Queue: 3 jobs
Job 1
Amino acid sequence: MKKLSEYGYRGSNINQRYDGLRFDNKTTFNKVTDVFHASVGHDEDQPAHLHVLDTNICATRCAEEYGNPCQRFCPAAVYEMVDDAATGKRRLQINFSNCVHCKTCDIMDPYQIINWVPPEGGGGPDYKNM
Amino acid sequence: MERESLEMDVVFVGAGPANLSGALHLARLVREYNEAIANGTRAGESLGEIEIGVIEKGASVGAHILSGAVMDPRALAELMPDYAEQGAPIETPVLEDEFLYLTKKRAIKSPITPPPLKNHGYHIVSQNRLTAWLGEKCEEAGVNIFPEFPGAEMLYDRDDRVIGVRTGDKGIDREGRQKANYEPGVDLFAKVTVLGEGARGSLTKQLSQRLNLNDGREPQVYSLGVKELWELPDDRFALGRVTHTLGYPSDTKTYGGGWIYGMPNRVISIGYVTGLDYGDPLLDPHAEFQRFKMHPFIARLLNGGKMIRYGAKTIAAGGLHAMPQLYADGVLLTGDCAGFLNSQRLKGIHTAIKSGMLAAETIFAALLAGDYSAGQLSRYERLVSESWITPELRSVRNFHAGFKGGRWLGMANAGLQFLTG
Ligand SMILES: Cc1cc2nc3c(=O)[nH]c(=O)nc-3n(C[C@H](O)[C@H](O)[C@H](O)COP(=O)(O)OP(=O)(O)OC[C@H]3O[C@@H](n4cnc5c(N)ncnc54)[C@H](O)[C@@H]3O)c2cc1C
Ligand code: SF4
């Protein structure tokens, strides 16, 4: 993956690539709606099974260089940059219970600091008839 | 609470088509051998009872399995010549093949299907169902399957020989504290451990780093497939029709392509594959798929239909030269975690099944020899190189690389222009 600057992007607004993409809930769906149809389940009271070795990089170097691409390459809306009310800064939130075990993050993160490990047994999608 | 341990002969990690075929084939080889000894048609000593276990992280066999899928039945027919009579869940034979090149507004139909995308004689399957059925066949053959047991760590002896696998703990809360239902993972000891974890296996990654199984190999290349099942209001997409697309919405530098397969009851499998060697940091594979569905040709097909299922899974597409060493002391790698998929045909079920069978033959020979060393298990690589897998994979080895430079798209484009005049 190359940096935002190499593509001449200003910031990480995806309209720069996906102008006109909309989710009409008939033909096209956002990730959260789609993931609902993967019947994913994880016990929420367990440690996240996506180990991010250094989350400081997220709000600083990664935001600047790549615009936090985990929010895009993950097909299940697991990674989300949010404003932290306590610190007033941006931070990475990991919605691990959405994870469909595709392993994209383990492959794609540009700093190679995401490590996918199996969650508690039985957690994950239910791909009936898929 | 004490950690439990269990001694088995062979442990398969991951209940996918690769390992289930391996476990089934091994159980059968052992049974046939023991029977031959018992009735005197073969000399030697019985192997006795061989304990074969399969652990799976999903809640049931098949729960985490997602595929297209058009299956080349070659390997399943070798595993079980009467698979149809045995009730293998085949949705439909492939009845029509279609290859489309999408421009922004149009769908150009190729008058012929490029040979690698021809699917005559193949079956459309739900791999979730096929795998669940293979799991039942394994259990009938005496294989123990343990769903809800993820392999969390490899177990090694002092000389880095693999001696089994440790399963994940249960009942740890978000802060890492033990809950009331806490149960430590189980140590499963085995003579041979077989990893069939699918693309980018987490144990495969640990193991190959520790034992340098990727030394001298090309880096693995991955794609991500995003898929939905749709129920259509009428028969507008024929049962048994297989459609593949190239072109829109992928940009010319990105490998990408769509599929639509016609299943029974007016259900279609529709999805889009994006090469994960893309450059654009704003690319979103899920958005690529949504754009694919917004193409006028696809949108018309889906109009009035209902999306019923969703999922996504990666594919290891690097081919022969990206395959790791397939064995080490006490361990073998099967299926997608070892890169057995044919990326040109986007088909890995048949090679996964075959790799599992060859692993079983290797383990059977090791049981007879009482030797589980890397030297003995290296027989597996020899069997793979002598089987039909190797010529099949050799013929496609630079396919993905061609896409990367945008050349294949150019080529397909030129080819279609030539064909359509
Ligand atoms: C979108 C898509 C479309 C495809 N289309 C086709 C097609 O049309 N035709 C075709 O032939 N092939 C197709 N393939 C490829 C095919 O699905 C794979 O090649 C095949 O599934 C590989 O089988 P496997 O047994 O190696 O791994 P998988 O099918 O991935 O199974 C691995 C199993 O191991 C389990 N597991 C993983 N890690 C652990 C662990 N640590 N502990 C316990 N369990 C674990 C997983 O939960 C899973 O059940 C497609 C793949 C994808 C993703
Ligand atoms: S494995 Fe796939 S679904 Fe899970 S967090 Fe990573 S990218 Fe998202």
Job 2
Amino acid sequence: MPELTMTVNGKQVTGSVEGRTLLVQFLRDSLALTGTHVGCDTSQCGACVVHVDGKPVKSCTMLALQADGRDVLTIEGLAKGGELHPMQEAFRENHGLQCGFCTPGMVMASVALVQENPDPSEEEVRHGLEGNLCRCTGYQNIVKSILSAAKVMRG
Amino acid sequence: MSVPEIGQSLPRTEDERFLTGQGNYIDDINLDGQAHAVVVRSTHAHARINAIDVAQALALDGVLLVVTPDDWKKEGFGPMPTKTAIRKGKNDMDLAEPPRHCLAMDKVRYVGEPVALVVAETAAIAIEAAELVDIDYVSLDVVVDPKKALIDGAPQLWDDIANNLCLDFELGDAAATQAAFDKADHVVTLEVFNNRVTAVPIEPRGAVASYSPETDSYLLYNATQNVHANRDTFAESVLGIEKEKLHHIAPDVGGGFGVKNGAYPEPPLILYASKRLGRAVKWINTRSESFVGDTHGRGQDSTVELALNKDGKFIALRTTTIGAIGAFCWTVGPFTPTGGSARTQGGPYGFEAMYYQAKAVFTNTHPMDPYRGAGRPEGSFQIERVVEKAARELGFDPVELRRLNLIPRDALPLKTPMGLDVDCGDFPEVFERTLKLSDRAGFDARLAASREKRLRRGFAIAPYLECTGGGPKEFAGVTFVENGTVDLAVGSQSTGMGHETAMPQILAANLGLPFDDIRYHQADTDKTPIGGGHGGSRNLEVGGSAVLQAAGEVIEKGKVLAAHIFETTPEKITFEDGAFAEPGTNHSMTMREIIDASFDPLTLPDGMEPGGLNVGSTFERGIISVPNGCHAAEVEVDPETGKINIDGYWVVDDFGTIINPMLADGQVMGGVAQGIGQALMEEAYYEEDTGQLVTGSLIDYALPRADDIPNMVLAFYEDAPTAKNPLGVKGAGEAGCCGAPPAVVNAVLDALKDYGIENISMPLTPEKVWRAIHAKG
Ligand code: FES
Ligand code: FES
């Protein structure tokens, strides 16, 4: 089986995977980083979003080998030194999650959205979430969370 | 953290775990040495199984076992019974219940029905092997439309069930209703179609099972909403073992909405496989499997007739429904189109008489089970659609016609002609508050602005009446630990609604303890002797009441201890603001001090053991509660494209006492979004001749995304707590999807009224809207 090396949440990891192993499977099964979820098999739901070299990626749609040598950030690596990231904090304050299953992907996508567009309008946020499904919240509090986190992240 | 209050928007305990990737969902659970299972599902909607050849599958390296229907027969495993509360129909007819086994016996009756289970070293091998299971089918004629299924000569699903009729149900007074229709000045009739949808929680279903030969018992982790009832079914009905031999736990569950309530075939299959292999077995559905393998909801065709006087007063309502229930009676499947849809008929309006009749019908489709609301959204849609039609047809203002017919406050309490006990509330006030929120005065300006953009604008208001349901009993256990922790275990279950916060909030507020002292336990058959799980908006009503009752019992025990310490009698002790005191003296001890004292053998009265404040309390509801409220929607429609934009959405809800407004808001928002999904986008669509599910993936089944859902303005009417339970709560979980479909659909039809379009059936996709506009030229 081919070998790979990547940085995950700041730590270098190595492993061997089958050619067909998806990035999400590598993260969940080999590294036991189960915060990244799988909600579909057609690349629709976004529960699996992680960052690869700083860009949001659906980890169910990328082979683990494609991430060889790259820098991966998952939900487990977002909080720093016991401090929640402003996006995580905003989701908690604004009740931006219910069952929590879409949440890791939603938060990772939202962080990328705000990094890309630090002062988004509500419409831009709603549009920017088109790759992420949530069945619980009706999105209103997710949008509110992102707008409020954007303010904090702008400083 | 300090002592919380009822009515406080406490942030959620579970959030930190979920936000940092530390949630523990079913797919995150891995047991040592586990094997992986994949279900082989029927590709036919109706066929005889000639033969199942597993040789090739078994020959694949890494395959451990293929479970077939023959294994099931050999073991003598039983079917999973339906637990619907409605079992009798017209003329004392009994519900027709065919046996529902975990694997298809001799015939398949819907696409997705489990036929075999493959277990292998890895999930990838199991998937590959599942494709190698060779099933020789002889196809049979298919029927997916329940109306056609009833006709003589239609394909028959079950040899001994004539015309595919499961149950012919009625409620209300047929004769009195007919008499009212006879004397009515107007009768307005509408055909209403309630589209078949499915819940699509973002977490697919799955389970992990293991068997211990030492104790001859099983452990099952399962993404279910109801560990106790499903344990009983799996253990007693299927495997034929004592229920105590099956320890059933639901970990964090990623959404349910009813679709995870019922007893599914996969858990018993992997329980059996785990015993045969002597290894733990894990099974996780894919999303595509979920579409063909999860229960569906709604799916009703109804004729609604409204009788009115010439002044617009409603006098009678008659609804005749044909409700699909799929190929089998699922866990409570036949209940939804019958009793479930009957109870709230007529909404919050006054009627002299009502009559509801429904046929629950078998078809070659996945069986139905509750989906958020389970009958009440259907009832609400029926009445609101016919009222809107009546207003238009008879020339009444739709707002005025509703205002005229709402049950006035002073008419409460009353029993509706459907037997629903409506104890309190103020429907006219809730209606007026909703109107006020929605800024009716500004409508004309907004209409003009839309016209400028060549868009049509419409408005609708939809008051609704709801009721709770689900298991009537709930258990709350409070255990004090010497280190200061308080364990609270309740038999109801959260699948995202925030029980881990709301339930400790109730206990802490009533005992005067810091919120952080309480540790919450749920969904574990070893933690509570009984449990009703999730469903019917029942958690606060019965579970919350059990917690309150348990708190009361702790306080009573605390008074005995305090009296002993103060050297007086318990009747003299008061408990206020978290402290026990003897008025007229300076004797006072906080709850925390009394708890600490309860662990000190030297301070205990005779008969009290250390830790003697522990209680286990069962609450049983008498009569179901009646949440109610009102929705309003304003929409813009682009006649060029048929695209609908919901431009304003307002809700006022009467849920009785609000424990945690933030959580209650969340329930409404989520419910409204699902209602909007049903109204505009979603449909589980089966092809007529083949019974293939066309909407079998998230590419084909349209789930609302962030830009499909508007911002909602929400408010609560809190002046009418119910006396039906000690908390005064009415239930919040399902109300959102009762109000949204009629509000949105009626608003769209209002926007299109110049085209003379009377009806468009849900979902109102751009294509359907465009066609309706262009058909009218
Ligand atoms: S798991 Fe659904 S998009 Fe990746
Ligand atoms: S919080 Fe449950 S799917 Fe988003």
Job 3
Amino acid sequence: MQDFAESFSLAFSLVWSFDAHLMEIVWLSVRVSITAVIIALIIGFPLGAALGMTRFPGRQVIIVLVNALMGLPPVVVGLLVYIMLSNAGPFGWLRLLYSPTAMIIAQTVLITPIVTALTREIVEQLHQEYDEFFKSLCISPGQVLATLLWDARYNLITVALAGFGRAIAEVGAVIIVGGNINHLTRVMTTAIALETSKGDLALALALGIILMGLALAVNALVMGFRSTARSTAFG
Amino acid sequence: MLPLIVENLRFTGQHGPIIKGVNFSLNDAGVTVVMGPNGAGKSVLLRLLHGLLKVNSGQILWNGTGLNEALRKRQSLLFQRPVLLRRSVLANLRFVLKQRHISADDETCLNLLSRVQLDHVAYRSARHLSGGEQQRLALARSLALKPEVLLMDEPAASLDPVSTKMIETIVRDQRANNTKVIFVTHDVSQAHRVADDVLFLHHGEVLEHTSASTFFEQPQSTQARQYLSGEIVV
Ligand SMILES: Nc1ncnc2c1ncn2[C@@H]1O[C@H](COP(=O)(O)OP(=O)(O)OP(=O)(O)O)[C@@H](O)[C@H]1O
Ligand SMILES: [Mg+2]
């Protein structure tokens, strides 16, 4: 018990003093996850919106595929990215394995399907609602897309936040492709796993506290945007 | 865009035929009221006229040509259930004006809104409006486009007496402006007040197309007689 109490107070003091080592890890985590989210949004928003707006043969197949990809276990994604980036793999010559870039790639693969699927759902629903009005006005597809994205903006922000929440809390994929190298690829989740197994509970707890704080903040934001979305949509 | 000639128009939905070989022609500007029991196909007919649904057979000719984008832009359809953007009342109006590259300052927009008595809620979210207010906003949006043909699907269905009167005044103004108005309503006395001619639709067929006075005084079909007197139409 003594140990726990000590670990806790040490953890809090680490967080409180913005310990340099701690902050390095937090910053890398945030940087990797935000970069991955941005790339996932660049791919997922247009793709999801296109799937939600249009009807073409094979569309249903793509939707099923995206939904299936959404359920991919992170370790499997990590493994696949590892194979691609390893020396023997097709992209081995890029020498990306065990770098932050490799972690960004793994997280992007992980969250792009999520962003795409959620965006499709949101855009499709709004499109059904607006469709006849748009047709009646003879609006160009580009204008339709812009209007849908704009009117769904609060919902789409929650999609981005959900992607970020998933990325930052993920451990399986980044540990495989990043390797948890100190000062290079050590992020919050992998550091927690390592420090816990080493018995350094203070650092693990400190990271855990920050991770929880981030998760709570993201959730609070999601809830806030969701209620804004609802109130602009209806009464 | 007139005359409008509809020849042998057929439309089949998922559950069977809805418009079953309809013929009529509208030659003059003025108000054509479409009446008929629930499910007769009035809304479907308006959608077909506006090109939102594809005809299965037969044709719709607006001054000799089938409907294309250029023609549709000169029409406006007021939906039975208004479709409003998740934006403010004013932004909803601005949106349609921008789509048609009509520049309008705030004052012009507010004037348009005051025509439907919505200027006092201009900055509110459109989805927060009451049912009748939403209908009126949709009407203002249609009027902003200055259509040559105005298709109105029960625009007064959820309006209070004052708003109903307002709509009828607007309809009369449109007629005075040489806009063709096709107006669906179930309200017999309202039809009386605005109609030049009446199209009576029943089970996807046009049973009557006559001048308003003939329709209300001497309806030809039993179905129309029953409909007008509030009996169950079979
Ligand atoms: N887009 C559509 N595709 C297929 N069927 C439709 C479509 N819209 C409506 N229907 C069907 O066509 C029939 C006529 O519908 P419509 O909405 O035209 O009736 P209405 O005369 O406008 O009735 P109301 O007075 O209740 O508005 C209904 O049985 C309806 O289920
Ligand atoms: Mg109807």
